[in-house]
Amino acid sequence: MSTPEIDVRGLHKSFGDNEVLRGIDLEIGSGEVVCVIGPSGSGKSTLLRCVNLLEEPTKGQVFVAGAEVTDPDVDIDAVRRRIGMVFQQFNLFPHLSVTDNLTLPQRRVLGRDKAQAAEVAADNLRRVGLSEKAEAYPASLSGGQQQRVAIARALAMGPQVMLFDEPTSALDPELVGDVLAVMRRLADEGMTMMVVTHEMTFAREVADRVVFMDGGVIVEDGTPEQVIGNPRHERTRHFLSRLLDPAMADVEEEISDQVGKSEQPPN
Ligand SMILES: Nc1ncnc2c1ncn2[C@@H]1O[C@H](COP(=O)(O)OP(=O)(O)OP(=O)(O)O)[C@@H](O)[C@H]1O
Ligand SMILES: [Mg+2]
């Protein structure tokens, strides 16, 4: 692989004496799409937040597009300009129109003039299929539309990589598809993407790699076919069965408990 677009080396992160990331190594190549899955509390969001330095790692290094994010002398604003981030909550400015939501950060952070910023905004609204909402206010949009505006806003900054933290988990089920379709198109266009998600169909169809995290470490890292289709570790199998059918996972657990008991030698 040529220089990875995202390179995480020996990353540790503690909150007080709670060690949340316990040695993460992860390389993501240019144009690669990596989905990160794992149970609640396993450190997925913390990992994403360390990549753009919303959290400061306790130990280890992070490089984005060849620049060390964790270098104490780094120009963090310059680094963040290369990284687009989309959260579960869309965080749009409610008092600004869709266009102004897209132009404001371009003007403030990149110093683009009004006309330039408006042109880039229009291009990116077209990219997410929302040209007709340019003058609308966020409150008049569905959750799925708001999330697509948030994606367009991130894209308007011209990022080299995009990080997504459960971008569809706050949405009503019928709105999820449109957001995933936009992300799929972005992947097809060659964007480097790191996506924390529970959408296994998306992970299977769009991801080049799936990373399963548990307890602050990467347990499995491979193709979707390997990690979702044929997981090597019991922890991964357990997580996936629970995700696909929570009721069945409990039954399975009960059965394996009982099998375990009956296998013990009588005394
Ligand atoms: N700012 C913080 N201060 C203290 N503890 C934190 C902070 N952020 C996260 N944690 C703790 O770190 C652990 C991992 O949290 P994180 O949000 O990374 O998990 P996650 O895998 O994203 O979970 P979820 O699927 O629920 O979003 C949790 O135990 C959480 O309580
Ligand atoms: Mg999270």
Automatic annotation (TrEMBL):
<keyword id="KW-0813">Transport</keyword>
<dbReference type="InterPro" id="IPR027417">
    <property type="entry name" value="P-loop_NTPase"/>
</dbReference>
<dbReference type="InterPro" id="IPR003439">
    <property type="entry name" value="ABC_transporter-like_ATP-bd"/>
</dbReference>
<dbReference type="Pfam" id="PF00005">
    <property type="entry name" value="ABC_tran"/>
</dbReference>
<keyword id="KW-0472">Membrane</keyword>
<dbReference type="InterPro" id="IPR050086">
    <property type="entry name" value="MetN_ABC_transporter-like"/>
</dbReference>
<feature type="domain" description="ABC transporter">
    <location>
        <begin position="6"/>
        <end position="240"/>
    </location>
</feature>
<dbReference type="InterPro" id="IPR030679">
    <property type="entry name" value="ABC_ATPase_HisP-typ"/>
</dbReference>
<dbReference type="InterPro" id="IPR003593">
    <property type="entry name" value="AAA+_ATPase"/>
</dbReference>
<keyword id="KW-1003">Cell membrane</keyword>
<protein>
    <recommendedName>
        <fullName>ABC-type polar-amino-acid transporter</fullName>
        <ecNumber>7.4.2.1</ecNumber>
    </recommendedName>
</protein>
<keyword id="KW-0547">Nucleotide-binding</keyword>
<comment type="similarity">
    <text>Belongs to the ABC transporter superfamily.</text>
</comment>
<dbReference type="GO" id="GO:0016887">
    <property type="term" value="F:ATP hydrolysis activity"/>
</dbReference>
<keyword id="KW-0067">ATP-binding</keyword>
<dbReference type="InterPro" id="IPR017871">
    <property type="entry name" value="ABC_transporter-like_CS"/>
</dbReference>
<keyword id="KW-0029">Amino-acid transport</keyword>
<dbReference type="GO" id="GO:0005886">
    <property type="term" value="C:plasma membrane"/>
</dbReference>
<dbReference type="GO" id="GO:0015426">
    <property type="term" value="F:ATPase-coupled polar amino acid-transporter activity"/>
</dbReference>
<dbReference type="GO" id="GO:0005524">
    <property type="term" value="F:ATP binding"/>
</dbReference>
